[in-house]
Amino acid sequence: MKKLRVTIGEKVYEVTVEVLEDDEGRVSPTPLPASLPRQVASPVYAAVPAPSGTPSAGGPDPDVVRSPMSGIVQKVFVHAESRVELNAPVVMLDAMKMDTYIYAPRAGSIAEVCVTPGEPVQVGGLLVRFHPVA
Q: Residue 99: which CATH number?
């Protein structure tokens, strides 16, 4: 059980929350309602621009996952040589006191994890690199 204080407007509420499952293990993304447009329900990995000065020949590289925002790496869910499925969580960032899960853009094998917990990242910063698909 965890005791939390929630403030809404000027009202303060103290609540007790039972933790049924901790997010230290594999995290399943919570499905969004079907009524939301598809582009909202999709992870945000593909639209992240390469940092300035980095060559981007022909668009986003399908073998890398870049940070969609500036933040602090809270958790890394993968390691080098691990296999991941499409949309599996790979990194959790803290940005403006909100946890943001970054999901795998494709299934495959991880070649390199480029960040560690506690490390700051900028928009477009490299998080994870996949082995290229043959």
A: 2.40.50.100
Print the domain residue range for 87. 62-134
- Residue 29 domain-assigned? no
| Interatomic CA distance for residues 130 and 106, integer angstroms | 9
pLDDT tens readout for residues 51-100:
444 444 445 788 899 999 999 999 999 999 999 999 999 999 998 889 99
Give yes or no for a contact between 18 and 25, defined as CB atoms under 8 angstroms apart: no
Q: Phi and psi of 67, rounded to 5°?
A: -75, 130
Handedness of CA 84, 85, 89, 91 (dihedral sign): positive
Retrieve residue 102's tokens. 């970054």
In a domain, 68, yes or no: yes
Query: Nearest-CA neighbor of 130 among 111, 116, 113, 114?
Result: 111
Question: Is 134 part of any domain?
Answer: yes
Does the structure show a pLDDT above 70 at 37? no
